[in-house]
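look at this one:
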Amino acid sequence: MQTIQELYTYEILTKDQPDLIEKAAECLAKTFIGVEVAGKWVQEPIIGYALQLPYEDFYQFTKEYIEANVHQGYCAIALDKERKVVGALVGDTNVLEIMEEDIFEGTFSNMNIVMHVLEDIDKRFLEDYKKRYGKDMEDGEVLHLFLLGVIAEHNRHDIVQGLGDILVKRARKEGLRLVLGEATNPKSLRLMEKYHDLTKYVDIEGNFIVHKYESNEHLSSIPSTVADGIYIIVKEL
């Protein structure tokens, strides 16, 4: 019987692997827009369910994100025995960017809604970060885990653990202060909490940093039984 280590291998992408970058973007786009895996429908509640963004547009967005940040060494993939990308976790160590204006157009214009929601909680986190540490966040201080997707038929949770382990280990080795993510649903929160000890961030006033879906006219269609909001989650290193 094969062990998990024999079933899958984990690698950090480099800029010289365009084919694997494309496959990682495909994996991520499928899980966000919607895909059937092992008889279950996998879909991200904002991008796939509420806004129903086009696959091709989100794939291109994801691919460009990886290409722009892969040199930092925080884009990891899981490969099966046939070298098929069956999981990806990609992030960066840039300061969280607050654009505040719309940057997407045409069929992908609803992505502006997603970015504004992220900017809402990211801005509040940056303000709390300055109060907590007495300084503004700088590049290279925080690992921002941005996109996670797994399309493997088996041992999906093990892949989540393997992908996170390789990036958190690297972040700790490089002396980063925190690992940060934005959890859009309870399932992703449970996975990151169980396998990587990321928990809902509590600001210095004792409050979660969250954007409630029910208060957003574009996202209020998301059932509360599926998810109630998007939370900042963190792990100290």
Remarks:
- The CA atoms of residues 199 and 233 lie 5 Å apart.
- Helices lie at 4-7, 18-33, 45-50, 55-69, 111-133, 156-173, 186-196.
